């Protein structure tokens, strides 16, 4: 649950960074560092968009999660 809240907060902050529309063919990259706090979850997530017409891609690694399925939610503010 704590991990889900952390990811939701991170992506909420990220959504505000992408509030300004991309111009032309300018690539945009954002990197999120997950630092351990009360647990041992850590990692890096990178978001990239080549231009305004391309989708955003996610890549990265996360370590220290408990065994089992995990997920995250991404929302877009308008």
TrEMBL record:
| Presence of keyword Signal | yes
> Which Gene3D superfamilies does its entry note?
Superoxide dismutase, copper/zinc binding domain
Q: Which GO terms describe its molecular function?
A: metal ion binding
Q: Which UniProt keywords apply?
A: Signal
Q: Write the signal peptide boundaries.
A: 1-19
Which SUPFAM superfamilies does the entry mention? Cu,Zn superoxide dismutase-like (SSF49329)
Q: Where is the Superoxide dismutase copper/zinc binding domain?
A: 41-74
Q: Does the keyword Signal apply?
A: yes
Gene Ontology terms: biological process: superoxide metabolic process
Write the protein's name.
SOD_CuZN14
The organism is: Ramazzottius varieornatus
């Amino acid at each position: 649950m704590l991990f889900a809240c952390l990811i939701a907060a991170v992506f909420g902050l990220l959504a505000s960074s992408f509030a300004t529309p991309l111009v032309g063919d300018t690539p945009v990259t954002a990197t999120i560092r997950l630092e351990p706090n009360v647990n041992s979850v850590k990692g890096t997530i990178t978001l990239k968009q080549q231009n305004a017409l391309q989708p955003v891609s996610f890549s990265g690694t996360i370590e220290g999660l408990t065994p089992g399925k995990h997920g995250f939610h991404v929302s877009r503010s308008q």
